[in-house]
Specification:
By secondary structure, the protein is of the alpha/beta class. Helices cover 36% and strands 23% of the residues. Strand 3 (122-125), helix 7 (133-139) and strand 4 (150-152) form a beta-alpha-beta unit. The radius of gyration is 22 Å and the shape is elongated.
Length: 295
């Protein structure tokens, strides 16, 4: 009973302080003493890897041991069946699951156990025939959801307008990064962001069309309005990425003397060749438009 209480307290401390390696190493010692030697060693190996610079010869033996432990114990380390319905991918970092790609249905069921035992920080939302918009909204009310620092909705089927309820009512406790790529609907985005609780803490926003040419003529005014919701009060620049499969358009917005300066780069998938970007002004309403040009 004491062991279970200690384990629960340590896991809670890891979830509440995901950047602190000390408590992870304390937990590694504890589980080894309790007989879970594989988990204890795995945590120490991954923490050591995170502290070892790329190119350091010591990384090879650590990586080899990491792969051996995953090959033999991955499902045990994960805590749920690897072939669970709706579970697509996961990433371990410093001994625990850091990122997961899964459907809302999975997250509302087996995912509860996974998130209770791991400090999951990033969720790539996946779609399935069984998942409905209300499932995503329900996931947004759960305690584990409030610990997410990044949410990627590019794999979810709703438009930006249809995501309004989820974006404005969910418990975004520490959200820093939001990916809304793969869908049109920039027109709705600024107004939705104005009504979100996370707008002042968000650092990175990604939006864009789902196929080449869909983004078409991007209204830079809309991008400015959206980035204004991100940049106020931040010393760091706000990043707004707009892209489609053949375009990776990155706008870096920085507040300077109450104005916004945009550093615009357009790259194609083919060897990252730089394509042309046209900046023009529309006569009459004087609204700036940004048009990607196929290379």
């Amino acid at each position: 009973m004491v062991g279970m209480s200690t384990a629960t307290s340590l896991i809670r401390a890891i979830r509440d302080n995901p950047d602190d390696d000390t408590v992870r190493l304390v937990y590694a010692d504890f589980v080894e003493e309790e007989g879970d030697t594989a988990r204890g060693e795995f945590i120490r190996v991954q923490v050591a890897l995170a502290r070892t610079p790329e190119g350091d010869p010591a990384r090879r033996s650590l990586e080899d041991r990491e792969h051996e432990l995953l090959a033999a114990h991955e499902q045990h380390l994960l805590g749920v069946p690897c072939d669970s319905d709706g579970l697509v991918e996961w990433e371990f970092r410093r001994g625990f699951v850091n990122e997961i790609a899964a459907t809302p249905t999975f997250m509302l069921n087996e995912g509860l156990a996974l998130c209770s035992g791991h400090p999951v920080r990033r969720w790539r939302v996946q779609s399935s025939q069984e998942d409905l918009p209300q499932d995503l909204c329900e996931a947004g009310t759960r305690s584990w959801f409030a610990r997410l620092a990044a949410i990627d909705l590019s794999g979810w089927y709703s438009t930006i307008g249809e995501l309004e309820r989820f974006l404005t009512r969910s418990e975004f406790g520490v959200l820093r990064e939001l990916d809304l790529g793969g869908r049109p609907g920039l027109d709705d985005l600024p107004g939705i962001l104005e009504r979100t609780a996370f707008r002042e803490q968000l650092k990175v926003l990604r939006v864009g069309g789902g196929y080449g040419g869909e983004t078409g003529a991007l209204e830079l005014e809309l991008v400015e309005r959206a980035s204004d919701e991100l940049g106020a009060g931040h010393e760091d620049p706000a990043h707004v990425d707009i892209g489609a499969p053949r375009f990776d358009l990155e706008l870096r917005a920085r507040a300077e003397h109450r104005q916004r300066a945009f550093e615009v780069g357009l790259r194609t998938d083919d060897y990252h060749r730089v394509a042309e970007t046209q900046l023009s002004r529309t006569r009459g309403d004087d609204r700036r438009k940004l048009r990607p040009v196929n290379a």
